[in-house]
Automatic annotation (TrEMBL):
This is PNPLA domain-containing protein. GO terms for biological process: lipid catabolic process. Pfam families: Patatin. The keyword Lipid metabolism applies. PANTHER family: NEUROPATHY TARGET ESTERASE/SWISS CHEESE D.MELANOGASTER, NTE FAMILY PROTEIN RSSA. Residues 171-219 are annotated as: Disordered. A motif (GXSXG) lies at residues 17-21. Coiled coil: none annotated.
Amino acid sequence: MLRTLEAAGYAPDIVAGTSIGAVVGGCWAAGRLDELEAWARSLTPRRMFGMLDVRLAGAGLIAGGRLRAQLETHLGDVAMEQLPCRFVAIATEFGAGHEVWLGRGRLSTALRASYALPGIFEPVRIGGRWLMDGALVNPVPVSAARALGGRMVLAVNLQTEVAGRGTVIQAQEEPHDEPEPEPAPDAAPRFRRLRLRRGRRSAEERPPVGVHAPQPGAPGLPAMLVDAFNITQDRISRSRLAGDPPDVMVSPRLGRIGLFEFHRADEAIRLGAEAAEKALPQIEEAMRALA
């Protein structure tokens, strides 16, 4: 989207970004978009897995040290006050739930706080606050762009196709002709007092092991977590955009690209360019109206 704007002669004076939007917007503002794009296009599923330093302790499943090293390699000690345009990254304060605008200090640290997805990446401590992903409070920060002085605001909404257009289903009842799923053999655990004995018990003496058999077709844990996050972002985005709509909305059709499928950067970048091309007439009309 940014490449398309530049080719059409537009350069934003203000950039407000949340999560991956903060990363892309911050790298563009710092003149490091080429490096980010080259790195993203080089990713494969295997390289993506290698970037995720998984751990079982701490506040996040991924320590984030390798991604942090990538950011610091390309951004160094760049401060947000030194950027040629006004920039703010949106984060959420842990516990209080405050929406925090990060516009001063080290750029790479602010970006890490803005994409710290709860349960996946550990929160980042800035100014005495523990901060996590800003998508929990403001996924498309139109309000921040306007507060910083933006007269014509262009928003990029990545959730248009991801979570669908959910509605309300009233009085949902279970079909009468659908049989109840039968429990798996020995599914109900049995509890009884056992005397300690020396030696190993035979198979006949061992108590039955409780087994939980998931229902056929039920979603797994990873799918549940990703879908829950997508639905939450979609509902928050709709609410915030209804109260403060942008002048022009760019909505890439990303429904078939998963939340963590960063190795599909070529496809995502192409879809972003296509959406921005379609929005150019609206941008030109909005600019003429304001002029």
